[in-house]
Design goal:
With 373 residues, the protein is of the alpha/beta class. The chain is 41% helix and 20% strand. The protein is built from 15 helices and 12 strands. β10, α12 (295-302) and β11 form a beta-alpha-beta unit. The radius of gyration is 20 Å and the shape is globular.
């Protein structure tokens, strides 16, 4: 079987000849070759260099750069602007919404050391700011750009599959893009009714995107709000987001799509709560030593039918962790195939900047040895 056949067989509930080996190498690749990591530009055309680096290491491809396959437009009374400007000794990106309720903006600043764009200025600081974001997001219209997805799929070929990124739910927008964790949690108490209205209306708009992607050529849809059970506990998720995810998964399944949900934080109780939405796969699973569950505990919480994709925490890829410990981490993850073949061997989130190349090669070798059925 080739890597594409292995991935699709696991999603179909059929045992492959070997555990699929897939990696998200985008962050590592851009850092390794000092390439631009630009959040302001679309990546509609396949990044041949990124795809080729996966082929070089014989690691299956699955995550494209940012969103592909669809576009968004706003009504005439909503202006969305994005621009770059100096910020101290660095460069920043500013996102701005201008609506009849006023204007909000947020800022990310480039950090060379981490090769990333952390948020330095959040956009929502008041009840009216929340109304501004709500108005902007509710007045979105989504349009297909399926040709961009088809170009990526053709470029990847048999060397993996291309997940279609969905983007954030309403609560994900607040937690990860516009308000931040602490202020969002406070707002669930201080502005509960306002938040309920925001979540209801924005997720109703999100379902329009769900319906659009149901018509797409994508085989797997990638959803997620960077789930972590210390941020979104099952109680929190059930109150604010479960109904949306359950309905989205239901619609995707009716259209013949599979759904992978990104879980890149604390795992205890989180794996189960996402599995209960009906989703097919948990992506970016990061077990101990960084995570709070061992590989076998991840499987016990998931049950035997929910796909676990991940296994190698970021810290284990780096030079401070010896090769023997890296090997043990990979083997421990692969050993869970005895409990269920619903497994992908991947990075816990991404291969991090600074990861040792010999470990990427070694992981492939270990999968080929210990991942066979």
């Amino acid at each position: 079987m080739d890597i594409r056949e292995r991935i699709l067989s696991v999603f179909a509930g059929e045992k492959p000849d070997c555990v699929p080996f897939i990696l998200d190498m985008s962050h590592w690749y851009y850092h390794r070759y000092s390439l631009s990591w630009d959040l302001t530009m679309p990546y509609d055309d396949p990044d041949e260099g990124l795809i080729d680096i996966h082929k070089k290491f014989n690691a299956g491809f699955y995550v494209p750069i940012f969103g592909i396959g669809w576009k968004v437009q706003y009504t005439n009374d909503v202006e969305c602007r994005v621009w770059k400007e100096k910020y101290g000794n660095s460069i920043s990106i500013v996102w701005e919404y201008h609506t009849p309720y006023g204007t909000i903006r947020r800022r990310r600043v480039w950090e060379q050391k981490s090769y990333s764009w952390p948020i330095k200025e959040w956009g929502i600081k008041s009840r009216n700011d929340l109304k501004i974001l709500q108005y902007a997001l509710v007045h979105r219209t989504f349009y297909p750009d399926f040709n961009s997805y088809i170009r990526w799929k053709k470029a990847v070929g048999r060397f993996g599959i291309v997940y279609m990124p969905f983007g954030y739910s309403a609560m994900g927008q607040l937690l990860n893009a516009w308000m931040g964790v602490a202020e969002t949690i406070y707002a669930t108490y201080d502005m509960e009714q306002d938040l309920k209205e925001f979540v209801s209306q924005v997720n109703e708009n999100n379902l329009k995107l769900v319906d659009l992607l149901c018509e797409s050529p994508a085989e797997v849809i990638m959803m997620g709000d960077n789930f972590s059970s210390d941020i979104q506990s099952p109680e929190f998720f059930n109150k604010w987001s479960k109904s949306f995810y359950t309905e989205a998964v239901r619609r995707f399944h009716l259209a013949g799509k599979k759904v992978s949900v990104h879980i890149d934080g604390k795992l205890k109780n989180c794996i189960k709560m996402i599995a209960e939405t009906g989703a097919d796969c948990a992506d970016a699973i990061t077990p101990a030593p960084m995570g709070d569950l061992t590989p076998i505990q991840c499987r016990q919480e998931a049950g035997n039918d929910f796909i676990l994709s991940g296994g190698v925490p970021p810290v284990v890829w780096l030079q401070d962790t010896g090769l023997k410990n890296f090997e043990k981490t990979v083997i421990d993850w692969l050993s869970t195939k005895q409990e269920s073949f619903r497994l992908f061997a991947a990075a816990g989130d991404q291969v991090p900047p600074g990861a040792e190349e010999n470990k990427i090669i070694r992981m492939r070798e270990l999968v080929e040895t210990y991942g066979k059925f």
